[in-house]
Amino acid sequence: DDSGQPVMGIRLSTHFIMDGLLASDGATVAVLTAGQQNNVFESGLSLYTLDGDAPFAQCSLGSSAVLDLYCGSGAFWALGDVSLSTVSLDGSTVCTYDYEDRYLKDYALKGDGFAALLLGKYRAGSSATLVTVNRDGEELASLDLEEQVLDMDAAGRYAAVLTASTLTLYTEELRVYQTLENTFGAQNVVLRSDGTAYLIGGE
Questions:
Q1: 103-108 and 94-98: which strand pairing?
Q2: Does the predicted TM-score (pTM) go above 0.70?
Q3: What does the pLDDT look like over 168-191, one tens digit per residue?
């Protein structure tokens, strides 16, 4: 709290706690766990109220190793190595988008109701597919890319993709919104919800 005292504490004996996140409503805490179910690796998301000792919802995320956890657009977004899962704030709905044997190369979770994923058939190489996925686990659009992607971001209604020479802003349906050429030297992009993009270069 504002005096530096803990508001709640969670201790588990059967699973490892991997991450924790306070929901955007300020009333729900999501705890990411890893353990085994029937001798098979399983990730899970447990939801607590701030004054609760036991979770009011426990959701399985399958065998995907969760790499990032985000809360936005009325859901928790759990980005895994083989799938993207969304969990409603009350834990009643779990939706999953499977990468279908493709490798996750990059991602951006903070679109307005969507996430952008860069998936490739191979770990190496520049060839990849840009995919947007909504909170229901449905693919909104996909676009094959041949140029090496240096960085990507998502905010508001847009997704930004930076290559060695070009910055392209897409809508969530992956229609080109704006393009900036000659971005040589830029290595990262930060996108705001109004479509403003900041490029960051390196020495």
A1: unpaired
A2: yes
A3: 999 999 999 999 999 999 999 999
